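Appendix B, record 7
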Amino acid sequence: ITIPHSVSKIPRFAFMFDNLKRIHLHDGVTKIGANAFDHAGLEEFTMPNSVTEIEANLFCACRNLKSVTLSSGLAEIPMYTFNECTSLTEIIIPEGVKTIDLSAFYRCLSLVDVTLPDSVEQIKDHMFAGCESLQTVVFGSGVKSIGDAPFLECKKMNKITLKATTPPTLLIDLFRDSQYGVPANLEIYVPAEAVEAYKSSASWAKYADYIFHVVDSSNPQRDKQMHITYETLDDLKVQDKTVVTLFNKQDARTDDEPLHDFRADHVLFISAGRDEGLEELKELLGQLLRENKIY
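Structure tokens (predicted):
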């Protein structure tokens, strides 16, 4: 089907349950309404760059749809846009998209790899929920927030790459899945210069191999601060992690009370500003890496 040039907007439900396999939209189309291709027979789709707005459920249950290229004029991918597009294997999301709404790719069972452009800033809940074949996802450098359980029931996920140097806010959990949990072979890659920022972020600490708990020894409220830290880790269900507590600023202490952390696996007393205790820290890191065979 070729849409005539006199048409600038595709109304909602326009091709719902239509058996068309391909449709050509000219560059004058600016908007496509909700459910326009709901349950349609489309096999591939290229959206003209003139389109600046699409509404929810656009390709809902287009089970023959394999490949989609979106418009560079879009700022948002609405909720359930590709809901149950079970044959979708290729999705090209151009620079310019800033928001991906609720469950945009819900149960796209054939998706394996997805790369999000640097322009994407906000990702809402359950983005790839139920994408059982999904293995790798790259988040662009501009992402600021990721909603709850973007990978719910994504049991084959093995690689997540985050290009942002500032850790994005993560709402609750990446998986939040009582049946599958976090895949055993999952690897998360972040920029080298941002590793410590991610490890110290409450949102991302649960995915770290080790928790380094730095305590200001000179602070009279140190016990309270330690309690708050562990309370936060408990709330986030950070479990079965090796905890290294570093009692820092030993040189600035004004009391001689013993320092304890009974929840830590290892405790060191350091003064980073004076390079005191750092050699012991290096030795401990080497020991931990050898024990876990990480080289």
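Remarks on this record: The first helix runs from residue 195 to 199. The chain has three helices and 18 strands.
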